[in-house]
Amino acid sequence: MGIKANLERIRDSIHTKEHELALPHGSVNLVAISKFHSQTEVQEAILAGQSIFGENRVQEATEKFIPLIAEYPQITVHLVGNLQSNKISRIVPVASCIQSIDRLDLLKPLNRHALENNKRVEILFEYHTAEDSKAGFMDDDSVFRAIESCSELEHIIPMGFMTMAPFTDDKNSIRDSFRKTRKLREACLQRFPQYSFPVLSMGMSGDYEIAIEEGSTMVRIGTAIFGERTQ
Ligand SMILES: *Cc1c(COP(=O)(O)O)cnc(C)c1O
Fold it and tell me: What single DSSP character describes residue 117?
């Protein structure tokens, strides 16, 4: 199947889930994860109406998307993979959102580069919920400290949370990982009433329906749109 047909099928199944759960149409946003896929494939998705893209590596994101953004100014790029401090200056001009904030010390330099680029960058705090991964904040307190430090950083906008469920067939542990992240959001809403944290980025090709049932407002889908990656 082609990219356009895949996108239509996924949008339909997202809308079906929204309907089932009595959520307003459009509650769940779709990020197309285009890592390892070409500019031509991304362009096909753009022409099929997709506007938010996600990449997990800074170099690939900049090489692929600087020309695409010039041609299609309506698209936005999210970084979903680990961000090293020395790559912040390169990703800031390209990304509207960094979904993979996993430590406090990224925030000040990110704010400074956003200021230099005369923009505000959205961020999600990545929460560690899967045994088989190392990414993300390991506990609630470290997330709280990171959020506290945002109060003085005017060029970053805390939008919410992101997690990756474990790679397993065990639906219960996948669901559990999404629930933990939803609970973290609830705890942060209590603690930081000045923020509304509208985004819960949860769910990939294999588990996005469970994620939506658990409150996801943003699914990140690669394989089911673009096909298998060759790496
Ligand atoms: C690759 C990736 C995805 C997409 O995974 P698929 O299983 O191909 O849909 C989502 N989120 C992150 C953080 C990723 O690295």
Answer: T
Domains of the chain: 3-226 (3.20.20.10)
Decide whether any atom of ligand 1 lies within 6 Å of the 33 Cβ.
Answer: yes
Q: For residue range 155-208, list pLDDT tens digits in order.
A: 999 999 999 999 999 999 999 999 999 999 999 999 999 999 999 999 999 999
Tokens representing residue 145 in the block: 């400290």
Please tell me whether the overall predicted TM-score, pTM, comes out greater than 0.85 for this model: yes
Residue 222 in contact with ligand 1 by CB distance below 6 A: yes
- The structure tokens listed for 179 are 């629930």
Residues 6+ apart with CB under 8 A from 163: 126, 127, 128, 129, 130, 136, 177, 178, 180, 181, 201, 202
